[in-house]
Design brief:
This protein is an alpha/beta fold and 320 residues long. It has two domains: 219 residues, Rossmann fold, CATH 3.40.50; 93 residues, Rossmann fold. The chain is built from 14 helices and ten strands. The strands form two sheets. Strands 1-2-10-7-8-9 form a six-stranded mixed β-sheet, sandwiched between helices. α3 crosses α5, α3 crosses α8 and α12 crosses α13. It is globular.
Length: 320
C-alpha cells in the first residue's frame, strides 16, 4: 500500500477501537523541559487497558476476523504484554484464547494473561520458539494466530497511538519509541509520516537485545544474538518475512542503542519523579531521548511510555 492509503487505514483502525481502548493522556515533563530547553511530553500508554499499548493492536486484529472464525478461539505467543492484550480482547469479544510464552517470561505478566481467562502454555527459550509452537498449535486446531507484531492489522491498531498524538500535540519535532518487533513504531511512524512529515521518528533499543536495530543496519532480516534485558517487552528476534521490517525501513529516521544502566536509571528516575510504574521498554525510550536531548533545545518532543507491566523482580533490580 502507499503511505497515504495505509495512514488512512490506521485512522480507520483508531475509530474502530475507540471507546474500548483508552485515549491516553500526554503529560508535560516540566523538569526535563527546563533542563534541556525542549518541550518534553510523555504519551502515557502505561495507563492503557491491560497496562500497555498492545491492547490496541490485539483488539483491532480480533475485530478484523469474522465472528465465526474467531468463535472457536485464537492463539498467540508473547513475552507478556501482547498475551495479556489478546486475552483481554478475546474475553471482550467472547472467544477463547490460548497464549504461548517463553519459559523465562515474567511471572507477573503470565498471571495477567491468566487473569483475563486465557490458557497459558510455557514453551521455548525465546519469543521465536514460542511463536513457532503457537503457530503449530493454531494450524493443527484451525485457529487464527495473532502475531505480536508481524501482522498488518495489529500494526494498524498500534498506529492509533500516532493518531492520538497528532490530535493531542501539534508541531512535534520528534517522537521517541522503543523498538522491538516494529509494530508500534511502524504504525505510529506510518501515520505521522503522512500527517506530520517533518516529525522525526526515533527508534530506541536495548544494547543486549537489538534485533530490529541490527536488521535495519544490515538492510535485511538477520539472526541477531539477544540476551536478557530489563526491557523484556522488546526482547527477542525478528521473524523471517516480518511485514514490519520494510515499514521500519521507510519510517524510522534514527535508531539508537541504550545500555542496561541507562534503562535502569531512566526507569527508576521516572518512577520516582512521576509516581507511576513503567516497564523497562518505556525506560528504553526515555534513555534514547536523554542520549541526544541536547539536539532538541527549542523543539517539541514526545516520548511514548509504552507500558506499566514491570515484574516485581525486575522492579527490585531497577530501584534496588
Amino acid at each position: 500500500m502507499t503511505l497515504s492509503t495505509e495512514a488512512g487505514a490506521i485512522a480507520t483502525a483508531e475509530g474502530t477501537i475507540r471507546g474500548a481502548t483508552r485515549e491516553t493522556p500526554v503529560d508535560p515533563d516540566l523538569q526535563d523541559s527546563a533542563a534541556t530547553g525542549a518541550e518534553v511530553f510523555y504519551k502515557r500508554e502505561n495507563l492503557q487497558v491491560t497496562g500497555s499499548f498492545k491492547a490496541r493492536g490485539a483488539l483491532h486484529k480480533l475485530l478484523s476476523i469474522d465472528s465465526q472464525s474467531r468463535s472457536a478461539g485464537v492463539v498467540a505467543a508473547s513475552s507478556g504484554n501482547h498475551g495479556a492484550a489478546v486475552a483481554w480482547a478475546a474475553a471482550r469479544l467472547g472467544c477463547p484464547a490460548t497464549v504461548y510464552v517463553p519459559n523465562h517470561a515474567s511471572p507477573a505478566k503470565i498471571e495477567a494473561i491468566r487473569s483475563y481467562g486465557a490458557r497459558v502454555h510455557l514453551h521455548g527459550a525465546d519469543c521465536l520458539e514460542s511463536e513457532s509452537r503457537a503457530r503449530e498449535h493454531g494450524a493443527r486446531k484451525g485457529l487464527p494466530y495473532i502475531s505480536p507484531y508481524n501482522d498488518i492489522e495489529v500494526m494498524r491498531g498500534q498506529g492509533s497511538v500516532g493518531v492520538e498524538l497528532e490530535r493531542q500535540l501539534d508541531n512535534l519535532d520528534a517522537v521517541f519509541i522503543a523498538l522491538g518487533g516494529g509494530g508500534l513504531i511502524g504504525g505510529v511512524g506510518t501515520y505521522l509520516k503522512e500527517t506530520c512529515p517533518e516529525t522525526e521518528i526515533i527508534a530506541c533499543s536495548p544494547e543486549r537485545s537489538p534485533a530490529m536495530h541490527r536488521c535495519l543496519e544490515a538492510g535485511k532480516i538477520i539472526e541477531v544474538p539477544c540476551h536478557d534485558t530489563l526491557s523484556d517487552g522488546t526482547a527477542g528476534g525478528v521473524e523471517a518475512g516480518s511485514v514490519t521490517f520494510e515499514v521500519c525501513q521507510r519510517v524510522v529516521d534514527r535508531s539508537l542503542l541504550v545500555s542496561e544502566k541507562e534503562i535502569r536509571d531512566c526507569t527508576a528516575d521516572h518512577i520516582a519523579r512521576h509516581h507511576q510504574l513503567i516497564e523497562g521498554a518505556a525506560g528504553v525510550a526515555i534513555a534514547g531521548w536523554r542520549q541526544i536531548a541536547s539536539e532538541f533545545a527549542g523543539k517539541r518532543v514526545a516520548i511514548v511510555i509504552c507500558g506499566a507491566n514491570i515484574g516485581i523482580d525486575t522492579l527490585r533490580k531497577v530501584i534496588g
